[in-house]
Amino acid sequence: MKKSSVLIVFLLIIIVLSGCTMKADAEIPKKVEKQTPIVSERPKVEEMDISETINSQELDTSTWIDVDAPTRIPILMYHSISSGNNLRVPPVEFREQMKWLHDNGYYTLTPEEAYIVLTENKKPREKTVFITFDDGYEDNYIDAYPILKEYALKATIFMIGKYIGKQNHLTEAQMKEMNRDGISIQSHTFNHLELPGLTKSQQLDDLTRSKQIFDQLLDQETSIICYPVGRYNEETKTFAEQSGYKMGVTTEPGAASSEQGMYTLHRIRMTPGMSTQWFGQIVENGNH
Fold first, then answer.
1. Beta-ladder partners of 209
2. CATH number of the domain encompassing residue 150
3. How buried is residue 133: exposed, middle or buried, by Cβ count under 10 Å (0-12/13-18/19+)?
4. pLDDT tens-digit readout, 154-184
5. Where is the NodB homology domain (predicted)?
């Protein structure tokens, strides 16, 4: 009888111990389940990054101010930044003018921004100006470019297609470097011939050829054509639009406005010997 009692107690102890072991084993999978959500969260992070990248490429005009139509902007027309004739502005004078724009709070427009300002009648800032250079002289890179960078100003250079890399003109490398720093390169045709003197097919070819060169070279949609010597006719405007340009600039004096026509915009010629005070008055008048 005593042996039977001992045996029963022994069996009970074994059963209890086995139950504890099974209970402990049953709790182990719970630790694995806690790690599962970490894997499922990774795709959500990737989707957010893609969305932010797309949005950052769009031109945000939500903070721009509405202005009375039609909007007017001064498009400054420079050529060479050097000395010698009435088309050349010395570097010292150019620096003083750029400093004035910076110190007086002017916003310098890109071609894309200028198009929105003129067609949608809103501005990124009350004081705006569009700086342009004709012909693509090398001194635009040597002398003007460092000054523009110093004052954090944007500008546009109208380059002649067949003069790329030629003596006293910009090279591909120089244009690409400036383009990365906010200096837009746009079209001044391929041959720099007076367009009204060409046949219809010659005009269209010159306008199209130039646009294709800058589109491919700078991986962009070239949007502005600058007419050589500022001359054009009705066919020129038609072919400019047909070639894919959004705007055309002339040498006709005054501030630019959409009332003039988007392919016949006026500009303000910059000449040597202009005082900083006179420069300031010209720019201010062009905003009103």
1. none
2. 3.20.20.370
3. buried
4. 999 999 999 999 999 999 999 999 999 999 9
5. 127-288
